[in-house]
Design goal:
By secondary structure, the protein is of the alpha/beta class. It contains nine helices and eleven strands.
Length: 299
């Protein structure tokens, strides 16, 4: 038990490798704010610079030449402070060749600190969008993530489309999602926006080493972008604090649900991290969770 007045235990740094936007709260911009707000120092390696989320309109894409990206990843891999990292997250890649550099960096972190988990958010595509859904990264990038990063991940956080693409399976029910997640073989697979049992609800389904658990809450129409990045980062943070899978999932889901609800209520087209940061720190929203009975894998 912590004594009154005692300092809070210092949280370990997390290495975040993903995209950066100038406006908005998606990807690295919102994720870095959220992790630092709850006490994690962040090392941030951007994979691409964008003016805003592509869903808000076309914009200039700035991607570092592959040789320079590989060089800065190598600099980080050689850092004497690499062992300080408590975990690594990767998300959106700006070029398929970046996957090899990220993989090398992840392996270096693991060598320096074998207990540091690697979370891969395989940002590939979605069921929704102006084109009706599908891959929104080049196929070569999707294949590089699948072949080089997914096998290294201790934690994988795909949405239903990404899970189906990675496994070449149909994912339209909770049992199908769970079966596909187990087929990947990663220690933990967190399926965001998984099929829910209740109507007008959203579930986050975790296939973990001690069974499967789902956290479910009401669906919010037209949510801002960036929820997948956020739940992945908060789930990782909760695990690093020593919480069990169910508690980590419930807390992460509650924060995302509350932040989305408050942002939508104010008419925002982005997650309001600055105004509603308390939702990230300690959400008051109630999210139900349940254990999911696992059956033999279904096709």
């Amino acid at each position: 038990m912590q004594m009154p007045g005692a300092a809070e235990p210092q949280k370990k740094p997390i290495l975040v490798i993903t995209s950066q936007v100038v406006r908005g709260g998606i990807s690295g911009r919102g994720l870095t704010f959220a992790l630092e707000r709850i006490g994690h120092p962040v090392w941030f390696l951007p994979t691409i610079l964008l003016p805003w989320h592509p869903g808000h309109g076309k914009g200039t894409r700035i991607v570092a030449p592959n040789a320079e990206f590989a060089a800065i990843a190598a600099d980080l891999a050689a850092s004497p402070k690499l062992g300080e990292l408590g975990g690594v997250m990767s998300g959106y890649l700006g070029d398929p060749d970046q996957a090899a550099s990220v993989a090398t960096l992840v392996k270096a972190v693991k060598a320096a600190n074998p207990d540091a988990p690697y979370l891969c958010d395989p940002v590939l595509g979605d069921h929704t969008g102006s084109t009706g859904g599908g891959l929104y990264v080049p196929k070569a990038t999707a294949e590089a993530i699948r072949d080089e990063l997914v096998p290294l991940a201790d934690i994988l956080t795909p949405n239903c489309f990404e899970l189906g693409w990675l496994t070449q399976r149909e994912v339209e029910s909770e049992l199908q999602a769970l079966s596909a997640a187990r087929a990947l073989g990663n220690k933990r697979v967190l399926i965001t926006t998984s099929p829910a049992l209740r109507r007008n609800a959203i579930a986050n389904l975790l296939a973990g080493p001690r069974g499967a658990v789902a956290a479910e809450h009401a669906a919010i129409p037209n949510p801002p972008h960036g929820t997948g990045d956020l739940i992945a980062g908060l789930f990782l943070s909760n695990l690093l604090e020593g919480r069990d899978d169910e508690d980590a999932l419930k807390r992460a889901s509650a924060s995302v649900f509350e932040l989305v609800a408050r942002s939508v209520k104010k008419g925002a087209d982005e997650l309001l991290f600055a105004e509603e940061q308390q939702s990230v720190v300690k959400a008051m929203a109630l999210v139900s969770s349940r254990r999911v009975l696992e059956t033999k894998a279904r096709a």
